[in-house]
Amino acid sequence: MSPADLSLLRHRRAVEAGQLAARGFGILSTVLLVAGAFRIFPVGTPGALTVACLAMIAVMTAAEVVGVVNFRRPGGRQYAWCSAVQVAADLAVMCTFVAALRVYVDITTWTGLIVPIVAGALRFRLRGALATWAVTSAFLPFALHLGGHTVVPGDLAFAILINLIIAFISGTQSGAFARQIGELDEARRALEHQAGHDPLTGLPNRTRLARFADGEHGRELTVLLLDLDGFKQVNDELGHAAGDELLRETGHRIHAALRSGDLAGRVGGDEFQVLLPQTGPEQAADVIARLRAEITRPAALSGGHATVGVSIGAAHRQAGQDLSLDALAAQADQAMYRQKSAVRRAGTSERPAPGDARAHAGPARAS
C-alpha cells in the first residue's frame, strides 16, 4: 500500500483502539456490577441479571477479539465484516443492558443506546448510524415498559428523536471526515506522482529511477541511455509544441517496447534512461532493437510529420558488482557519445549491428 493510503489505516486503527478501550471499560464495569461493587442492589445482584451480565461479557469479549483482528489488519479484506460484527455485538449488549436494568432499577437507561449508534456511524457513516437507530427505535417501546414501569407521555418520542439527532450528527460528521481523508489521499498521491515523474511525458524522473535502482542493488542490471538524433531540427522547423508532442510520443513508444519489470524514464531534454533488471548484454540487444524500431518510426505531429534517429548507449552490471546507477549511467553516456562521434567521423548513417548496444539509428529529418 502506498504511503498516501496510510492516513486511512491510521484512522481505522484509531477507531479500533477507541472501541477496544471503551469495550474493555464496559467489560470491567459489568464484572464489577456482578460482583456487587456498585451496591445498587441491597440483597445482591439478582440471578437473572447476573446471567444477562455474563452473556454481555461473553459477547463483548468476542467483539474485542474481532476488534484486535481489525486493529492488526486495518487494510485487510475482513475489515468490513469484522466491523459489522462489532456493531451488531455492541447493539446487542447495549439493548440487553438497557432492558436488564430497566427491570431491576427505576433509572433512565435508554441513553445507553447512543453508544451503538455512534459506533455504527464511525464504521459505516450515515447509513450505519441510521441502521442502528432504526433497531434501537424498534426496541425502545419494549424496553421502556419492562418491569411494569409507567412511561411518561412523550418520553418514547423524545428518546427516539434525540437518538435520531445523534445518528444524523455522528453519521454526517463521520462521512465528512472520511471524504476529507479521501481528498487528502488524492492530493498526496498527486504530489507523490509529481515528485517521481516527468510532467511532460509522464515517465519516471531521475528520483524514481534512482529508487528503482536501489531496489536492484547487488543484482544484475543493464542501463540504457537514449538520445534523440535530430530533435533540435524538429523544434526549429515545426516549433517547440511539436517537439513536446514528439517527446510524449517517444515516451509512449519506449514504454511499449519494454518488458514487464523494466523501467524507462526521462532524465532531461531529449534523453531517456531505461533500466533492465536481471538482463545481460544479449537480452539487452533485443530490447535495444525494439526500442530503435519503435522510436525511428515516423510520428504524426500537429505541425506535420517527423522522423528522428536515436543513439543508445548501454552499461552492464553483473550480479554482485558494486556499481551504482550513477556509475552505470556515466558508462552508458560515454558509450553513446563514442558511437555518435564515430558516426560523425564516418560522415554516414551507418546501420548498427543488431547486438550493438551503442547503435545509431541514422540521420534525422523533419518534414
Describe the structure in your own words.
GO terms for molecular function: diguanylate cyclase activity. InterPro entries: Diguanylate_Cyclase, GGDEF_dom, Nucleotide_cyclase, Rev_trsase/Diguanyl_cyclase. Keywords: Membrane, Transmembrane, Transmembrane helix. This is GGDEF domain-containing protein. Pfam families: GGDEF (PF00990). With 367 residues, this protein is of the alpha+beta class. The protein has two domains: 191 residues; 161 residues, Alpha-Beta Plaits, CATH 3.30.70.270. The protein is built from ten helices and seven strands. The strands form two sheets. A four-stranded antiparallel beta sheet has the order 2-3-1-6, with helices on both faces. The chain has a three-stranded antiparallel beta sheet with strand order 4-5-7. A hairpin with a 2-residue loop joins strand 2 and strand 3. The longest helix is centred in the middle third of the chain and has 42 residues. The protein is elongated.
Largest sheet: 4 strands, antiparallel
- Please give the order of strands in the largest beta sheet: 2-3-1-6
Instruction: Kindly report the oligomeric state of this protein.
Output: single chain
Distance between the termini: 47 Å
User: Which spans have pLDDT < 50 for at least 5 consecutive residues?
Assistant: 349-367
State which percent range the strand residues make up.
5-15%
Radius of gyration: 34 Å
What is the overall number of helices? 10
Structural class: alpha+beta
Mean pLDDT: 87
Q: Helix fraction? A: 55-70%
| Total domain count | 2
Along the chain, the helix and strand elements come as HHHHHHEHHEEHEEEHE
How many strands? 7
Principal-axis shape equals elongated
Transmembrane segments: 20-41, 47-67, 79-101, 107-124, 131-152, 158-178
Protein name: GGDEF domain-containing protein
Pfam families: GGDEF (PF00990)
Organism: Paractinoplanes toevensis
